[in-house]
Specification:
22% strand; Rossmann fold; OB fold (Dihydrolipoamide Acetyltransferase, E2P); 3 domains; globular; Transcription Regulator spoIIAA
Length: 495
């Protein structure tokens, strides 16, 4: 049996195990973990015969960052490939938010190392949050990679690659207070050319005790709104019909600079609500979404802006993490149970048909059974359409790791997570069943995975809807009457 075949079998087995574990623990999203960067090869100008391959893990910001990296490498003459065996450069864009995410990447690196043994010229690099956190381990102890590049250092990739080609280990994990990559035009991941990410800010100033993001991505800095609007205009003119504004804490966006339209220097302040309006005004046919929000920054001004514009989607991701005030205090979330519930009420009052999703952590430090029950009752109150659900894993260097003991045993964590998942299954099903008989505007995104005769797309509330293709095409808006539903999707016909 050839080494290449052994490698392929190993990878298949590894990802099957990952999939089974995923299905046992979670319901929604992150199906794109480890997805290879794919795009129209004509988008990159070919200058040499070298190829790069990128897999992205973690949040949408990482997928967006991979598009930036692709643009930088493309200008250096590298061509994209989705075949890992053809690659001269392999990058994993990584996540450190949970222990399992890091374990997944480590396992993947070990498998790639087997390929590297057969191709001595192959360079392997780690990008993103794990790069900053585990640089010494990757380079010196485990010796799995040639390049380690943090989220603020992608401009240095050409020099780092040259350094690695000479046999030296190449590292740049310096964090920046200014870097936003605003002047770099990303090479778009979405080969359908319908939906796209726009990164509007980077970093995070919130010091949630469980989170590594402030340490791996640095302080908040917002991008010039003019460049954001220009990027949205360009995307629309190229046929894109939906943009998602991205940031670690997107609703804390705040840009201050010189007013170039005045013949004098002046401070100009653009907050998130104002930016939403600017992007919405690009074109009424351009849908606008955003992620991820912190509850403290979802102001009434933001809510009224969403309600004002038809093309700003009626959907908010509002991570609660816990339904217990005492647990939220240990998490340093800066709000309590009642305050969060009032935000839910405000959303429901101002945007009555708004879809709401959440992040929930089971088994945080010293979480009691009563605190866990408060999380379940919060879910009942908020009626989340779906949630991203995990059990707590301590991250080195965080406030929680320094201040608290990870004292909830694994069995209890898994049991509580299972109860949260089951609760969300019920809520998702109830929410979707309520939509049977309703008609929604849907943006046709792509052919359904289950049938070549059907399309799928999302409504304003971010629910996936499946319907017969008919004579419609990707990028069209259609009115779909919902005839049936399960906990994950709606199904209907175009009317």
């Amino acid at each position: 049996m050839s080494l290449q075949l052994i490698f392929v079998i190993f990878v298949v087995q590894f990802y099957m195990n990952e999939l089974l574990d995923y299905l046992q623990q979670k319901k929604h999203d992150e199906t794109r973990q480890g997805e290879a960067l794919n795009m129209d090869l004509n988008a990159i100008e070919f200058k040499n015969n070298k190829y790069f391959y990128i897999e992205s893990y973690g949040c949408a910001m990482n997928f967006s960052d991979s598009e930036i990296v692709a643009s930088i490498l493309g200008k250096q003459g590298y061509s994209i490939t989705t075949n890992i065996f053809d690659a001269d450069l392999i990058f994993l864009n990584t996540c450190s938010i949970r222990e399992k995410a890091e374990q997944t990447v480590r396992q993947r690196l070990r498998s790639i190392n087997e390929l590297k043994k057969q191709k001595s010229s192959l360079l392997v690099g780690v990008l993103g949050c794990m790069a900053e956190r585990l640089k010494s381990k990757f380079l010196e102890e485990e010796k799995l990679v040639d390049l380690v590049v943090g989220p603020d250092a992608y401009r240095s990739l050409p020099d780092l690659i040259q350094e690695a080609e000479t046999g030296h280990k190449a590292v740049n994990v310096l964090l920046s207070r200014e870097e936003t990559y605003a002047d770099i035009s990303p090479v778009r991941l979405d080969t359908t050319g319908i939906t796209a990410f726009i990164s509007i800010m980077r970093g995070c100033n919130n010091m949630c005790s469980f989170c590594v993001v402030p340490f791996t991505r640095g302080r908040e800095r917002s991008r010039n709104p003019e460049t954001i609007v220009e990027e949205a205009h360009d995307l629309f003119n190229r046929g894109y019909r939906e943009v998602t504004l991205l940031g670690q804490n997107v609703d804390s966006y705040c840009w201050k600079g010189e007013d170039k339209n005045e013949d004098k220097e002046a401070d100009v302040l653009v907050n998130f609500a104002q930016l939403l309006e600017k992007v919405a005004l690009v074109n009424p046919l351009l849908r606008v979404r955003f992620s991820t929000s912190h509850p403290k920054d979802i102001t009434d001004e933001v809510l009224h802006t969403i309600a004002k514009y038809h093309n700003i989607c009626n959907y908010i991701h509002l991570p609660v993490q816990s339904g217990s005030s005492s647990c939220l205090e240990r998490m340093n979330r800066t709000y309590d149970r009642d305050w969060y519930m009032n935000r839910i009420k405000a959303i429901q009052n101002i945007i009555p048909d708004c879809g709401i999703s959440s992040d929930i952590i089971a088994g945080f430090c010293s979480e009691t059974e009563d605190e866990h029950i408060e999380t379940l009752t919060m879910m009942d109150f908020a009626q989340y359409d779906y949630s991203y659900m995990f059990y707590y894993s301590e991250r080195p260097g965080t406030l929680a790791a320094r201040k608290y003991t990870d004292d909830v045993d694994l069995e209890t964590k898994k049991r509580r997570l299972a109860e949260i998942v089951e609760k969300q299954y019920q809520l998702s099903l109830q929410s979707n069943l309520k939509d049977v008989g309703k008609t929604f505007e849907v943006l046709v995104e792509k052919t359904s995975k289950k049938s070549m005769e059907e399309y799928c797309g999302r409504n304003s509330q971010n629910k996936m809807i499946i319907f017969p293709k008919g004579n419609y095409k990707v990028g069209d808006y259609v009115q779909v009457h919902i005839e049936s539903a399960n906990k994950a999707t709606l199904k209907g016909v175009v009317v």
